[in-house]
Amino acid sequence: MRQNPSFAMTDVAELRRVIDDNPWVTLVGTGEAGLVASHYAVLLDGDRDDLTIVGHVGRPDDAILGLGERELLVVVQGPHGYVSPSWYGDAAAVPTWNFVSVHLSGVPEILEPEENLRVLDRLVDRFESSFAQPRGMWSPPNDEDFVRRLERGTVGFRLTPTRVDAKRKLSQNRTDDVVDTIIERVEAGASPYVDPRLGAEMRRAHEALRSARRASS
Q1: Number of domains, the chain
Q2: Which of 72, 163, 82 shows the shortest CA–CA distance to 109?
Q3: Quick one: angle between helices 176-187 and 198-216, nearest 10?
Q4: Residue range of the domain that includes 61
Q5: Is residue 136 part of a domain?
Q6: Do 173 and 102 touch, CB atoms closer than 8 A?
Q7: Of 217, 215, 207, whose CA–CA distance to 172 is shortest?
Q8: Most CB within 10 Å of its CB: which of 48, 56, 70, 200?
Q9: How open is the CA angle 107-62-65, to the nearest 5 degrees?
Q10: pLDDT, tens digit, for every residue of 3-62?
Q11: Looking at residue 34, which CATH number applies to its domain?
């Protein structure tokens, strides 16, 4: 990912927030036939305060990705969307795409069955928690034999990244009034190609910039 110092993300707390808010990721590895990609949900490791993630893949994706043997790239895609040049007023401008993305690279550790089972349980609890009547992995009619068979069909992993590339391109190079206009258009649904969370992400980034400017003035 081409980096620009103005758009770089380095704050670990912010990176953790983006990962936690966007758990559906792309796993990119190198297989016998070349590059391969799979898509799974991940979680931040509950026992760590860094960028370590845990997750699982279904068999035989572990072999295809070389899980535990070769470097894995995890692409976390945050809110993103198309920005029309018409939103800049009369200034010369071209279309662009605002986005937040985090890339985590490293060789993952393969989890033992019992730890993999705990991770699977956490995943289910995380995504069921928003339902009025959440159903856990162990909830009837699921029984222990069923859950154990499910675990054996997956391979759990833990990835502590040895390289992190993160970018938050949210019109930081634009004036405050233009940024406010873009946020207004985004939140009004002026483009069909916009994640509805993009406006809030832009507000967060620009409030941080404005606070930094006030502190230095």
Answers
A1: 1
A2: 72
A3: 160
A4: 12-171
A5: yes
A6: no
A7: 207
A8: 56
A9: 60
A10: 888 899 999 999 999 999 999 999 999 988 789 999 999 999 999 999 999 999 999 999
A11: 2.30.110.10
